[in-house]
Predict the structure.
Amino acid sequence: MDLYYEVTGEGKPVILLHSGGADLRDWTFVAPILAKHYQVIAFDGRGCGKSPSPTETANYVDDLLAVMDHFQLDEATLVGHSIGGRIAMDFRLTYPQRVSKLVLIAPDVTGYIPSQPFTEWMQKIQAAPNVDRMVELSLSACPYRFVMASPQKDLLVEMAKHNLAKMFEWATWESVWPQPPAIERLKELANQACFIIGKEDALDAQRIAEYFKEVLPERRFIEITGADHKPTLTHPEEIARAITEFLED
């Protein structure tokens, strides 16, 4: 298993999957709280942080399977943020026996068609002349308004610069995902999932949240006031408390 990881704490295993343009530092403030009660495994996704860059079409679900097999885990709780949530969902739908519970923080979902403004925003970022400009365009958007005004701004900027620069080392940006897409199968997740989102997150994230509202019990749909797309950095105590309460339910 060639992915970089860090392990803290003891107890039932909880695996943390970070958001896009980030690495395991996404969990800098959440992991120590969870580690008081659980074995917490955080890892850098392929092409991020200290993990190697993709040399062929990436399969992030298979990478997560490799992490679990490396630690000889029959099952674990998965906590996924943004694209990490997408990976966690697809893993649960592919290997349901390996997942005890699922916590989704502002997740992406396979099969969701992004809005035109989001697509145009991403195209603008990709067309930027250098990494500094890419980071500036990325983090000046609404989904980062609160975190960029917080003490965690420097950490977020450093993560974004490191991981956007690293993307230029990738042999390919292509990835493969299980079929059928998760958006068609959300009801299969209802008995095991908890959904967390910042009330000030982007329109597309809120649209995805609406899909989950239809299938999840109300107590497992949690909105955090004053949080955007990075509640892991700005509201770690609330995130950790929501995860702990869900796991002990």
Remarks:
- Strands lie at 5-8, 13-17, 39-43, 76-81, 99-105, 193-198, 221-224.
- The first helix runs from residue 31 to 34.
- The radius of gyration is 17 Å.
- The chain is about 35% helix and 15% strand.
